[in-house]
Amino acid sequence: MEIANEDFPTSSAIMASPNGLSTAHAQQPLFSFGVITDIQYADIPDGRSFLGVPRYYRHSIQVLQRAVDNWNRLTKLKFSMNFGDIVDGFCPKEESRSAVEQVLKEFDYFDGPVYHMIGNHCLYNLPRSDLTAMFKIPSLRGEAYYEFSPSPEYRFVILDGYDVSVIGRPLDDPKALEAIRFLEEKNPNDDKNSPAGLLGPDRRFLMFNGAVGKEQLEWLDKILKESAECEQNVIVCCHLPLDPDAATPESLLWNYEEVMGLIRQYRCVKACVAGHDHKGGYSLDSHGIHHRVLEAVLECPPGADAFGYVDVYRDRISLVGTGRMASTEMVFES
Ligand SMILES: Nc1ccn([C@@H]2O[C@H](COP(=O)(O)O)[C@@H](O)[C@H]2O)c(=O)n1
Ligand SMILES: O=P(O)(O)OC[C@H](O)CO
Which InterPro entries does the entry mention (predicted)? Predict the structure, then answer.
């Protein structure tokens, strides 16, 4: 991985041209798209996370406004992606709908489609069926997982990490019951959001996380098989991170091992991108898959930013970050 500033590319981001002069990547990307995550807007005073990290709830919508301005000025982005948590759980519940609408209105100023993911904070505010409708999630039967192909060479798979979850479903829903049983078995604490006593990646067995369920895994298998057959590269997107080397254990998808086990049966997935773990992270796993956890908007102090865009090539993707979002060059192994 190379991390560079948007204005000052690293030496490997500069390619030699035939006349000996150096120019930035001569090759044109197949397409480009915008990225942003964990806006967690709420019209409430600044606060802190459980671990004491400052959170700027009102400023976060201004970061989104600057992101949309920046994306529009680039005039080359085919779409943008929001990796979840557009409103915060501390948003007063009577304001939840209008807060979500305010944030979506800012996304509407973007000159292109926006693909959304549902995060835990979205589900603290509104029922999942309201969110899938408001986010215009392009799934066939109202699920929050879906896929799209912006060019013949690429497919994007958006996973729903809160498919099996205690949050966002009525407590008598079979998937909520499955999640309650799972947490009872895996987390001995009375407060199921507390990782106390859990070790390493087991610290992910928290109520604010969730799992990809059986039908979604079957759907993923079908999509990956099709993509492998037509030699498409796949980018997997999920609010929850899928690799312990890219994220804090408390932020991982409950069944990340099962999902990665399936992904590794095929060679088409080149990168997995996530949000949720606000500090961000990166890893290259043992199977050559890049994992990039994006830095959160919510923790940007006034004036600071965290958003970016990705240039997509056949053999790599290049994240160009602004502000706290680091730039990352992800070259594919095969
Ligand atoms: N190490 C931790 C992290 C969190 N919790 C619990 O989760 C809740 C939400 O955490 P935030 O990071 O969003 O503030 C928090 O209120 C705690 O109940 C925890 O116990 N230990
Ligand atoms: O966005 P939150 O408040 O659910 O926080 C998630 C934690 O940062 C995961 O480690």
Answer: Calcineurin-like_PHP, Metallo-depent_PP-like, MPP_ADPRM
Residue ID of nearest Cα to ligand 2 atom 8: 277
Residues 43 and 80: beta-carbon distance below 8 Å: no
**Number of the ligand 2 atom closest to the C-alpha atom of 208:** 4
Residue 333 φ/ψ region, left for φ over 0, alpha for ψ in the -120 to 50 degree band, beta for the rest? alpha
pLDDT (tens digit, 9 = 90+) per residue, 285-299?
999 999 999 999 999
Atom of ligand 2 nearest to the CA of 248: 10
Q: How confident is the model at residue 334 (pLDDT cuts 50, 70, 90)?
A: confident
Tell me the residue type at 49.
Answer: S
Q: Rounded to 5 degrees, what are φ and ψ at 87?
A: -125, 155
- pLDDT digits 0-9 by tens, 44-83: 999 999 999 999 999 999 999 999 999 999 999 999 999 9
Task: Please give the share of the chain, as a percent, with pLDDT higher than 90.
Answer: 91
Q: Cα(105) to centroid of ligand 2, in Å?
A: 25
Tell me which residue has its CA closest to atom 9 in ligand 2.
251
Ligand with the closest atom to the CA of 207: 1
In the structure encoding, which two tokens stand for residue 324, read together? 């706290």
Asked if residues 234 and 270 have their Cβ atoms less than 8 Å apart, the reply is yes
C-alpha 249 – ligand 2 centre gap (Å): 11
Please name the residue that has the structure tokens 């949050």.
167
The three-class DSSP label of residue 149 is strand
Q: Which atom of ligand 2 is nearest to the CA of 247?
A: 10
Q: Where are the beta strands (DSSP E) in 173-268?
A: 233-238
All structural domains of the chain, each given as residue ranges with its CATH number in brackets, are 11-331 (3.60.21.10)
d(CA 183, CA 165): 10
Q: Measured in angstroms, how far is the CA atom of residue 50 from the centroid of ligand 1? A: 5
